[in-house]
Amino acid sequence: MSMNKQIFITSFVLVVSIVYFGISDVDIVVQDFFYNHETHKWILNSYSQPYKFIFYDGAKRFLILFAVSLLIFSLIFRKKAIVQTYKKGIIIVLLSAIFVPSTIGILKNNTNMPCPKNDIYYGGVYPKTAVWEKYPADFVKPKVKCWPAGHASGGFALLSLFFVFRRKRNRLIGLGVGLVAGWSTGLYKMVIGDHFLSHTVLTMIIAWLIILLIVKMTSIFGKN
Fold this sequence. Notes:
Elements: H1 3-23, H2 26-31, E1 35-36, E2 41-42, H3 51-76, H4 81-85, H5 87-111, H6 150-156, H7 168-191, H8 197-223
Antiparallel strand pairs: 1-2
């Protein structure tokens, strides 16, 4: 499948997913598994350890350390055969580590979508809304930054590992690493009431789209 076709299909899936989650109740159905309506608490407290360290602080630091280490390694050993062999893939991973989280961060800062814990259904004050909708004129509250899932974006940026390798088996392993990293942090944020399922799903799709665009751009500039 050509890269242009993959970009088109991913963009189409993204639009359909945004509309589907916006008009359906699937987020509430899934999120109810993580909330006790009798005690009005999430099944896991956001400060509970060692979960917070493993899936939040530790995961974030590990991903930053990984990207920085990869950059330093590729600079120090830039003339070595292994770096030359995987040069394009390394560039794709490094660019993904920058542009995936930063793009998701920009979206979070401007969409003004509530987290589950902010939703009126779970004891918050924000009404259910789709990303294309506006709040009622008389609803004046501070802007919230919960859509899409920022924390999981760092993990999903590792989906770019798919493009580092040439063998199908290794590519699938790289893809699996990105999925595990993104969904482990994404599910943790769902369990503590910080994100709906749609937030994580859409972050994954957006991340993959950004990675495909990076691959496309590196291929274009690589020919020049």
